[in-house]
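Dear Dr. H.,

I hope your travels went smoothly. While you were away I took the liberty of generating a structure for the chain from your last submission, since the lab meeting agenda had it listed for discussion. I wanted you to have the full record in hand beforehand rather than looking at slides cold. The sequence, exactly as received, is reproduced here:
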Amino acid sequence: MYWYRTTPKTVQCTGDTLGAPNGRDLLADVVFVATMLTEPADLTVTSGSGAPVTVSVDAGIHTSNFTMGIGKQSFSVKRDGKEILSGTSEKEIADSCKIWNFNPYVGVLSA
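The corresponding predicted structure, in token form, is as follows:
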């Protein structure tokens, strides 16, 4: 499972008359991923044009976070060098918006 805001906190939304939400500076620009694994594996996240980042994840339920990048969000889980799960989110992170929306976009990949 993964979740993130669809715009970084510094983006200026051009059509919103109310202005930026209070507390936006308290947020981090990150992509969160929760893994639910029966055995350890390697999780790779590619956020936008950023370089892929790989972390080792133990068995069980664990949450990791990755620096947010503009563009497509791709995820891969490998065990013993073999890909067991991968996919790309249906919603990209954008560098522009008309109205402020700090609700998270949530997606799930399953084997």
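Two observations you may find useful: The domain at 2-107 is CATH 2.60.40 (Immunoglobulin-like). Residues 76 and 86 are 4 Å apart (CA to CA).

With kind regards,
E. W.
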